[in-house]
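A.,

Following up on our hallway conversation. Structure tokens first:
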């Protein structure tokens, strides 16, 4: 006579709960003994209609979960006795930290999907996919993350006094006890597959660490819109969307520095990329070539123009969206942050000059295009004609003819420049000098009496001249057409809410190439970090400039093809040049930026002059 114990745990439970009678079980046993193909007792009971799945589920759910997964799978006929023994042996000998369920999957005793299906369908635990946005974060906060991860469970929400908890394995007694300890005995177990569970825990952990804020809107359109809106609100200049192995990073460039915004699970990568491709009219099926496009994004407070670049990487497509500023955000030339004397000279000897080339130089993101537009805005009037060739138009200004170069339709820079001159303009704005041909055309246009405003990608002002000469532009052309070169950088501004006085350290002095006496009168500041500046100590940016006005001596030096070092000395001694580094020091000494920013961003070509002299030269 067999006892209840040998029927197996489930049959034992069913007997205990009076869902089955002892005689039914004995009858089923007799039937089973006669089967040619062995079948689990439970299946025989079900076939004989002595028990239903519903009854089994209800009984298991109502029990105090004293079931072990190995026994269950054996009872249900998914594992034979030898396999179960082998799995236990592996656990004892090699994999002491692993749960039996993990070993069964890892060593292919059972397929993972089937494992979860059995737990769910046969045992009646609902199989769920946790959604970050619906999880009660307060429940999560009750438990140290390590406990959740080690035991692989995740509290979801509390309804009618009981707490739903998703387990990787709801038959794992250690995990269930840990959950009960945290959330009371009235827990309602559900199953989530191992990967989803651990991924969700990881996202929650990142979120708690401030890495992820919240994936509120699960639709891709919503995610894309929320990213763009957040970038607008945070006054970001660029959005970087970068797939990596296990997630999608989104960062914003703010005040020139990339800041983390959010991480999204990697599942959204494809859909999000496709959505952006549709929005910017790129080829949605193309995944192997770099692409570009443009989005006109409408939102409550207006419309913003986004330039999109898709760059193919080993992890997928990197997407960068540049937010193009609207015309009303253009700076007044008086507020660019040029020192009083520099502004005066820049206007008189460069901007107001009726002809010649005015170049603004600096690396990408140094604000040179904004400066050119501030000049355009300043000189724009109904008596003069201004025409532009840009790749593409970055700012939209009323009353001037702006042309966006689009090489994809064969509207090239050179082609445009050829036509521009025939439009009889007074002022020509060339977005950027990129090669010797566009440089030559800019010079030729200036030679024929036009005023040309342009940008050039070089480190400093003298470097701009030298680079033109290195492009095989005739020295006479450079010396007779270039009126001025303004080099610039944008440095982060010390947060006004938390800025406090600070001293320049000996190491900083050494790196600057000056002495403590040189900077004696300076009132340096640094931000301690507050909520206003997101603990960075910086908020907003300031421009730092180096203005080279080409006077007779500088022109002669160019014609004589002197070295950059010589041209620089002549400019400093005879043209009133204050270098980028020196202008930066004047601004740091006024507490606007920090020495760290100067050392991070500015070229250090020669030791700076003492602060008192620099202040006099700047007219501060
Ligand atoms: Zn602050």
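Then the amino acids I'd put at each of the 620 positions:
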């Amino acid at each position: 006579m067999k006892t209840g114990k040998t029927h197996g745990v489930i049959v034992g439970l069913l007997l205990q709960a009076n869902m089955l009678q002892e005689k039914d079980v004995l009858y089923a046993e007799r039937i089973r003994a006669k089967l040619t193909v062995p079948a689990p007792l439970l299946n025989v009971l079900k076939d004989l209609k002595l028990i239903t799945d519903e009854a089994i589920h209800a009984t298991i759910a109502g029990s105090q979960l004293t079931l072990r997964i190995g026994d269950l799978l054996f009872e249900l006929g998914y594992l034979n006795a030898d396999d179960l023994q082998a799995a236990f042996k592996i656990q004892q000998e090699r994999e002491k930290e692993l749960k039996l369920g993990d070993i069964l999957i890892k060593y292919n005793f059972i397929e993972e999907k089937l494992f979860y299906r059995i737990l769910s369908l046969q045992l009646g635990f609902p199989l769920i996919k946790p959604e970050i946005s619906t999880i009660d974060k307060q429940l999560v906060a009750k438990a140290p993350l390590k406990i959740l991860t080690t035991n692989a469970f995740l509290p979801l929400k509390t309804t009618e006094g009981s707490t739903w908890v998703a387990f990787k394995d709801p038959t794992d007694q250690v995990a269930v006890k840990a959950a009960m300890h945290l959330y009371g005995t009235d827990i309602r177990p559900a199953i989530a597959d191992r990967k989803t569970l651990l991924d969700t825990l990881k996202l929650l952990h990142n979120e708690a660490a401030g890495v992820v804020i919240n994936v509120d809107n699960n639709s891709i359109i919503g995610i894309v819109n929320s990213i763009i809106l957040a970038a607008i609100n945070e006054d970001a200049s660029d959005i970087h969307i970068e797939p990596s192995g296990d997630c999608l990073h989104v960062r914003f460039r703010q005040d020139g520095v990339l800041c983390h915004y959010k991480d999204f699970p990697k599942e959204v990568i494809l859909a999000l990329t496709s959505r952006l491709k549709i929005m910017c009219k790129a080829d949605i099926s193309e995944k192997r070539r770099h692409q570009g496009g443009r989005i006109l994004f409408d939102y409550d407070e207006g419309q913003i123009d986004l330039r999109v670049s898709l760059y193919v990487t080993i992890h997928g497509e990197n997407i960068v969206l540049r937010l193009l500023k609207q015309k009303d955000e253009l700076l007044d030339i008086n507020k660019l942050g040029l020192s009083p004397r520099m502004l005066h000279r820049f206007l008189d000897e460069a901007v107001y000059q009726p002809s010649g080339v005015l170049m603004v130089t600096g690396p990408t993101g140094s604000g040179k295009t904004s400066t050119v537009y501030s000049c355009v805005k300043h000189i724009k009037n109904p008596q003069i004609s201004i025409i532009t060739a840009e790749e593409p138009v970055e700012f939209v200004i009323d009353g001037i003819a702006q042309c966006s170069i689009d090489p994809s339709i064969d509207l090239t820079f050179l082609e445009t420049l050829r036509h521009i001159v025939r439009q009889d303009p007074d002022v020509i704005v060339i977005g950027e000098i990129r090669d010797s041909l566009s440089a030559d055309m800019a010079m030729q246009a200036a030679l024929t009496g036009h005023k040309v405003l342009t940008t050039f990608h070089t480190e400093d002002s003298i470097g701009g001249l030298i680079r033109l000469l290195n492009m095989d532009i005739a020295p006479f052309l450079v010396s007779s057409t270039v009126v001025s070169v303004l080099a610039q950088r944008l440095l982060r501004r010390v947060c006004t809410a938390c800025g406090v006085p600070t001293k320049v350290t000996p190491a900083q002095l050494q790196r600057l190439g000056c002495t403590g006496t040189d900077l004696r009168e300076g009132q340096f500041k640094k931000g301690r970090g507050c909520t206003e500046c997101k603990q960075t100590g910086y908020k907003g940016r300031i421009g730092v400039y180096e203005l080279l006005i080409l006077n007779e001596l500088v022109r002669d030096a160019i014609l004589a093809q002197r070295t950059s070092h010589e041209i620089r000395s002549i400019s400093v001694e005879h043209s009133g040049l204050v270098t980028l580094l020196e202008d930066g020091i004047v601004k740091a000494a006024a507490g606007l930026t920090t020495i760290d920013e100067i050392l991070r961003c500015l070229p250090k070509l020669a030791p700076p002059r003492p602060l008192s002299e620099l202040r006099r030269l700047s007219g501060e």
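Residues 1-5, 210-217 have pLDDT under 50 and may be disordered. Curious whether your intuition agrees with the design.

B.
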